[in-house]
Write a structure and sequence with these properties.
about 200 residues; alpha+beta; four-stranded antiparallel sheet; three-stranded antiparallel sheet; about 20% helix
């Protein structure tokens, strides 16, 4: 009698640090799946900082859930996205996709924070507003902003071509204290500071 073929063994995944695991659990989107894909991408490296951002959108009477996890190691920026999978036309079962990307820190080109401050005339020092947009760039996606070029002569009607800027914005996250909580805003600032201190060396 021929025995059944044995299933290939799966290498043990690293145990994530408790704060990262707790943040993934709090996001509530298939936390075991998200933790496992992070662990598979992380390997033996140390977690120096992390950010977990969960968002829910509504599209044609359907609810779409999405979680983004950013993990900073000594050498890499690991980004994981987990989403509801919507390509099953019959809708017979729930499906999810989880994707990770590992970016060497040496290629991360910039960390941009845009603070949104309501009623700036009453701004309190040290508060930094209630909303921010975190933009990370490492050269995968670039945006070109073009505007007509001009000269100093207000009466000039010549065509001076165009001028513009090239901006890299591979990842953009919007975090609002009102929607996500003040702790989420503080976590985003802490992660951005840690990542900024790790690049450009």
């Amino acid at each position: 009698m021929v025995g059944m073929p044995s299933r290939p063994s799966t290498p043990a995944l690293p145990v994530l640090p408790a704060p990262l695991r707790a943040a993934i659990e709090q996001a509530g989107y298939y936390p075991q799946l998200v933790a496992d894909v992070i662990g598979a991408a992380l390997g033996p490296e140390e977690v120096r900082s992390h950010l977990v951002h969960q968002e829910t959108t509504f599209d044609q009477d359907a609810i779409r859930r999405h979680v983004t996890v950013l993990v900073l190691t000594p050498t890499r920026l690991i980004i994981a996205h987990a989403d509801d999978y919507t390509d099953d036309p019959q809708g017979r079962e729930d499906l999810a996709t989880a994707t990770t990307e590992s970016i060497p820190l040496r290629v991360v080109r910039g960390v941009m924070l845009t603070h949104v401050v309501a009623d700036p005339s009453r701004y309190r020092g040290g508060s930094l507003g209630r909303e921010l947009t975190l933009t990370l760039g490492w050269g995968t996606v670039s945006r070109v902003d073009l505007v007509p070029a001009g000269c100093g002569d207000a009466n000039c009607e010549a065509d001076h071509g165009y001028e513009g800027t090239i901006a890299s914005d591979d990842l953009v996250l919007r975090i609002s204290a009102d929607a996500d909580g003040s702790a989420a805003l503080s976590a985003a600032l802490a992660f951005a500071n840690a990542l900024s201190a790790s690049i450009g060396r």
